[in-house]
């Protein structure tokens, strides 16, 4: 996989928070990190289970939490830490919360020694590989947390308060849930309502014909229809994958995730690739986009040099300085346009999924305490605190009542309401990072959008990559 040296610190933060599409340490290092080690000490005795303590937390036991020090910071976690201490006063002075950008190198010795923290925000450039951690049996099953009563409504289990797909994201082909994704990201085609109206006298195009017409109008005024980070073309799937699902149905993405033979040769894939390639052929892509990184492409877009960009809801924070220069920017997200009336899914179909992955190590001394901390974080109070601090949704469903959201976040919330049950959640980027990032992204989609490869050639190449991954016995396979 490629080096992380080309990424800015902010880039690494956002990518990890959103998808886990990050360059991970070599498998040998990860295997070492996930291997069993020596005796890390005694586990805390369980506490007394009660209505206020459904996870039977030891009310005087120490708690050890390690947070990724990224774009979300750690204040939201420290605030939840204070809530934990208030609930269990005897833990005062015993709850340790450390922040680092170097998760893997910081925690590897502790995992090796059988002395991991009780709760870890496993994110960032040094994110530990989940497939390895799961396969090495290093994580605790979070089912007790999910089945515990929620803080806000004891009649509802925690699992019943979460947004669609969050629980499934933390599973790896079985019933156990190993990861709790705390943030929630909406992906799609991001644009300025004001700029779209000014340049093309239009609202967001609901059909592909309308999309092409808008791009043609923009071109005549010297404005590109689209831009994207050509150095990191795995951004393209943020809008391309739900487009494929919209055309051919969610089943197409399921087959792709499962590495089924010829999954990429589905007609829906070809139709979507042809449509995006048409943007290049007709000159609707900002010149120079193949050479731009994510920040450069976002800057050009925010400055009005292009109307549309495939991205995630972190873009509101990441492009804040440019967006603030135009107080009437009206940031918004659009779902994939309809290709034709024969599309299998309705307009509004969108990709949304969890980010900022939390884990409780199997060898944690105080696993119930780690889960209780997550239960507190998934309360309405903690969730709204996070939203206000970092302008990102959490995985708590409906946790935004009474909040005034910034335009992009408000648009993302509206997009989720419009989508209803038509939310897709591809898993390829979680399960097979190298395949998604370097091979499909850089090796094929980037080449196609730069005009160096036709859609047919890109599909053939991607199918070959997928087949190689499926046949590689060293890569653990997952199904949904």
UniProtKB/TrEMBL annotation:
* Signal peptide range: 1-34
Q: Where in the cell is it found?
A: Cell envelope
Q: Keywords in UniProt for this one?
A: Signal, Transport
Q: From what superkingdom does this record's organism come?
A: Bacteria
What family does the database annotate?
Belongs to the bacterial solute-binding protein 1 family.
> Which PANTHER family would you find in this protein's record?
ARABINOSE-BINDING PROTEIN-RELATED (PTHR43649), SN-GLYCEROL-3-PHOSPHATE-BINDING PERIPLASMIC PROTEIN UGPB (PTHR43649:SF31)
This chain's protein is named: Carbohydrate ABC transporter, N-acetylglucosamine/diacetylchitobiose-binding protein
């Amino acid at each position: 996989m490629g080096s992380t040296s080309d990424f800015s610190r902010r880039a690494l933060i956002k990518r990890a928070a959103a998808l886990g599409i990050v360059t991970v340490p070599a498998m040998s290092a990860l295997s070492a990190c996930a291997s069993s080690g020596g005796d890390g000490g005694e586990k805390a005795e369980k506490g007394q289970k009660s209505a206020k303590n459904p996870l039977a937390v030891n009310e005087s036991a120490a708690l050890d939490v390690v947070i990724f020090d990224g774009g979300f910071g750690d204040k939201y976690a420290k605030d939840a830490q204070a809530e934990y201490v208030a609930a269990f006063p005897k833990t005062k002075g015993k709850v340790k919360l450390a922040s680092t950008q170097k998760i893997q190198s910081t925690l590897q010795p502790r995992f090796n020694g059988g002395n991991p923290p009780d709760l870890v925000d496993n994110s960032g450039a040094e994110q530990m590989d989940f497939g390895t951690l799961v396969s090495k049996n290093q994580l605790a099953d979070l089912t007790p947390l999910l089945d515990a009563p929620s803080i806000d409504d004891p009649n509802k289990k925690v699992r019943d308060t979460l947004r669609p797909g969050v629980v499934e994201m933390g599973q790896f082909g079985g019933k156990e849930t190993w990861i709790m994704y705390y943030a929630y990201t909406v992906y799609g085609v991001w644009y300025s309502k004001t700029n779209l109206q000014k340049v093309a006298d239009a609202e967001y195009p609901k059909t592909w014909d309308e999309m092409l017409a808008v791009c043609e109008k923009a071109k005549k005024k010297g404005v590109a229809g689209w831009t994207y980070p050509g150095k990191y073309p795995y951004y393209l799937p943020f809008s391309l994958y739900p487009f494929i699902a919209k055309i051919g149905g969610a089943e197409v993405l399921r087959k792709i995730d499962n590495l089924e033979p010829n999954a990429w040769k589905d007609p829906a894939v070809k139709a979507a690739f042809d449509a995006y390639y048409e943007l290049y052929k007709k000159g609707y892509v900002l010149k120079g986009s193949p050479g731009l990184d994510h920040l450069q492409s976002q800057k050009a877009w925010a400055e009005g040099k292009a109307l549309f960009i495939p991205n995630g809801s972190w873009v509101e924070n990441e492009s804040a300085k440019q967006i603030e220069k135009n107080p009437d920017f009206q940031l918004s997200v659009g779902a994939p346009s309809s290709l034709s009336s024969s599309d299998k899914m309705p307009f509004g179909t969108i990709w949304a999924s969890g980010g900022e992955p939390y884990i409780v190590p199997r060898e944690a001394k105080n696993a119930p305490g780690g889960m209780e901390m997550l239960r507190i974080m998934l309360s309405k109070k903690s969730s709204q605190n996070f939203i206000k601090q970092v302008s990102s949704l959490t995985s708590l469903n409906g946790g935004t009542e009474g909040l005034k959201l910034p335009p992009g976040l408000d648009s993302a919330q509206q997009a989720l309401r419009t989508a209803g049950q038509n939310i897709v959640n591809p898993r390829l980027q979680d399960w097979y990072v190298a395949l998604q990032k370097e091979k499909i992204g850089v090796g094929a989609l980037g080449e196609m959008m730069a005009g160096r490869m036709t859609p047919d050639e890109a599909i053939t190449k991607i199918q070959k990559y997928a087949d190689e991954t499926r046949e590689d016995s060293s890569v653990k396979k997952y199904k949904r």
